[in-house]
Amino acid sequence: MRILFAAAGSRGGVAPYTGLGAALRRAGYDVALAATGTFAPLVRDAGLEFRRLPAGTRGAGGGTGRRELMRTAAAFATELGQGFADALDGGADLLLLSATTAPLGWHLTEVTGTPSLGVYLQPTAPTGDFPPVVTGARSLGRPVNRAAGRFALRMADRVYEEAVAKLRHRLDLPPLSPYAMRRRQERRHWPVLHGFSTALVPRPSDWRSGLEVVGNWWPHHDTTGRLPTGLEDFLSAGPRPVLIGFGSMASGEGERLSEIAVRALRRAGLRGVLQTGSAGLAADGDDVFTIGDVPHAPLFPRLAAVVHHGGAGTTAAALRAGVPAVPVPVTADQPFWAGRLAALGAATDPIPFRHLTAERLAEALDRVVRQQAYSRAAARAARHMAAENGADQAVEAVRRMTGG
């Protein structure tokens, strides 16, 4: 049986599917992953077939306005939709859709009759338990949270309007709005598996049937590989360092952020590892080391803490390693995950990206490293996550759908 993942966005929105895809391949399925060209090596390293999607990745820095984000997202969706149908040219018996590709993939399934399953990395369905993850808003009570969740979905529908119209025209389908298609799928109880831990987000009791939280899907990495020699030497040369990185965020902010990071580390009396990322962080010195792309799994357990942007993948990886965090959220769902970490006691209160200073970061680092309550909370969450196996649960769900 041929399974096709369709995922689009930043690295954090694609990498988890490499691990899930590898698990499905071990279970006997032929697996392909459609993503933008940047991720071809990541996909192929996991032993999966790569299919190219046309759009570039989305990124955002500090100070980006909400209207501009909406315009950028709509342009991204439209570009993605123009070539989305091509990803199915190689055929598929089951389509696994991320939150960013589902609003397009549904229309392909209408034409082809291919069954589909949602594989989401964020909770998107309205609930009274919390406000929509993309707003970064505080909870205002259950009725308001649910209303805000419905409004957020309508805003997402608007992002896909042009993309869906053009895709349906190409597929010779009659016009249908993104809202109408989404409501159709909801009424059919279209199944969605959510690949995050219940340690961070327990399944809301007011969710409709068909929505499940199964645990994290971890990016594929070579378990026989070793950390780069220079990094290994730095880790062994002194006390556990702090990692500071912003993933695909903060492009062009590297010089400012590097200065803040080094000043904060030295003010707190800590060693540090700077991860370059899209921002371009870099510094030299006996007490600081710069790295590029290094898998989280072998590195994070050897750290004292992680300073990160609050992306879902980095948030989960730090918790899995039992390492406390200082979250510095930039945009989108990052304030949500940062708040969840803090609520668990495994992180300091988030420092909004636009308010980041060396002084604030140093004070947070001093607390998170030296007050053991943060490490104990992270360790408790790590034990909870170790009892979950999101990949196995997803494989079983696929077997039930396919009868295989």
UniProtKB/TrEMBL annotation:
Presence of keyword Transferase: yes
Pfam families in UniProt: EryCIII-like_C, Glyco_transf_28
Ranges of residues in domain Glycosyltransferase family 28 N-terminal: 3-70
Transferase found in the keyword field: yes
Alphabetical list of InterPro entries matching this protein: EryCIII-like_C, Glycosyltransferase_28, GlycoTrans_28_N, UDP_glucos_trans
GO BP: any one term: carbohydrate metabolic process
Keywords associated with the record: Transferase
GO terms, molecular function: hexosyltransferase activity; UDP-glycosyltransferase activity
Any coiled-coil regions, as ranges: none
Taxonomic superkingdom: Bacteria
Domain Erythromycin biosynthesis protein CIII-like C-terminal residues, every copy: 285-392
Protein name: UDP-glucose:sterol glucosyltransferase
